[in-house]
């Protein structure tokens, strides 16, 4: 069964600190992995995308890593800000299929809160 | 910038009512999707459409129907709303092709009483 598991479920950190969120997946065949940020009451917004051959991708203070052998990804946030408070969702795209439709498997997200 | 808009941010309906949720995208995307999001369950696909008048069931289509009469508009219909359909509903759109990003709307928080 295709699954995406994220940890921790929730996290509280102080402003300025770094943190790392984890994503393990069992999706096969694998096409790509995205990290989305979802602010409270808003739709998710893509932060990074990585394909099989990429093992790291940065977007400002966000750095995602991918280990396709162990089927693990992480999202590292550097020098956190209050505006980083959000849910971070790991999404894996299933490969080898044609047409449109449901090729995505979503994790349940990590709820991050950054405090002063 | 891609813009996906949803007709309502918050909606309160009574059990048994027929409910329409509308989604509009302005980027000429072929694919459109309806998800619901519940705590601890992540996003689950209800229906998707890859072309005008085309629709396919997602993972949880029971109790829902959809309509896509124009490329930019995708409607989700709850024929007879029930309390277990209280949820956050998210619409998304994308270019055709599995690697392309899905762009999400702001969501509609539906409460059925």
Measure the end-to-end span of chain A. Answer: 41 Å
Helix and strand run of chain B: EEEEEEEEEEE
| Largest sheet: number of strands, sense, barrel closure of chain B | 7 strands, mixed
Number of strands of chain A: 11
Order of helices and strands of chain A: EEEEEEEEEEE
Share of β-strand residues of chain A: over 45%
Number of helices of chain B: 0
* Helix content range of chain B: under 10%
Structural class of chain B: mainly beta
Reported for the largest beta sheet of chain A, the result is: 6 strands, mixed
Helical stretch tally of chain A: 0
Coarse structural class of chain A:
mainly beta
| Mean residue pLDDT of chain B | 93
Beta fraction of the residues of chain B? over 45%
Characterize the overall form of chain B: globular
Biggest interface, chains and residue tallies: A-B, 27 and 30 residues
Shape of chain A: globular
Radius of gyration of chain B: 13 Å
Describe what this molecule looks like in 3D:
The complex is a heterodimer of chains A (116) and B (113). Chain A is an all-beta fold. Helix content of chain A is 0%, strand content 57%. Chain A has no helices and 11 strands. Chain A has strands at residues 4-7, 10-14, 19-25, 30-38, 45-51, 56-59, 62-67, 72-77, 86-94, 104-106, 110-115. Chain B has no helices and 11 strands. The interface between A and B is medium-sized, with 27 and 30 residues.
Write the SSE topology.
The complex is a heterodimer of chains A (116) and B (113).
Chain A (H helix, E strand, L loop, with lengths): L3 E4 L2 E5 L4 E7 L4 E9 L6 E7 L4 E4 L2 E6 L4 E6 L8 E9 L9 E3 L3 E6 L1
Parallel strand pairs in A: 2-11
Antiparallel strand pairs in A: 1-3, 3-8, 4-5, 4-9, 6-7, 7-8, 9-10, 9-11
Chain B lengths: L3 E3 L3 E4 L5 E7 L5 E8 L3 E8 L6 E2 L6 E7 L2 E6 L8 E8 L8 E2 L3 E5 L1
Parallel strand pairs in B: 2-11
Antiparallel strand pairs in B: 1-3, 3-8, 4-5, 4-9, 5-6, 7-8, 9-10, 9-11
């Amino acid at each position: 069964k295709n699954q995406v598991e994220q940890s921790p479920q929730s996290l509280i950190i102080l402003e300025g600190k770094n943190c790392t969120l984890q994503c393990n997946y069992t999706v096969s065949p694998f096409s790509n992995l995205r990290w989305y940020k979802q602010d409270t009451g808003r739709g998710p917004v893509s932060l990074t995308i990585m394909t099989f051959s990429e093992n790291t991708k940065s977007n400002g203070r966000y750095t995602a890593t991918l280990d396709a052998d162990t089927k693990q990804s992480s999202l590292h946030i550097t020098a956190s800000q209050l505006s980083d408070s959000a849910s971070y969702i790991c999404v894996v795209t299933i490969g080898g299929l044609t047409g449109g439709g449901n090729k995505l498997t979503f994790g349940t997200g990590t709820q991050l809160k950054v405090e002063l | 910038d891609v813009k996906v808009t949803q007709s309502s941010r918050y909606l309160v309906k009574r059990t048994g009512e027929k409910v329409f949720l509308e989604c509009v995208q302005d980027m000429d995307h072929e694919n459109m999707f309806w998800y619901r999001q519940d705590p601890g369950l992540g996003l689950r696909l209800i229906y998707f459409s890859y072309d005008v008048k085309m629709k396919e069931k997602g993972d949880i289509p029971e109790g829902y129907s959809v309509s896509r009469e124009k490329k930019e508009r995708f409607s989700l219909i709850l024929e007879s709303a029930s309390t277990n359909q209280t949820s956050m509903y998210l619409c998304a759109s994308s270019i055709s092709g599995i690697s392309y990003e899905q762009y999400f709307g702001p969501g509609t928080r539906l409460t059925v009483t």
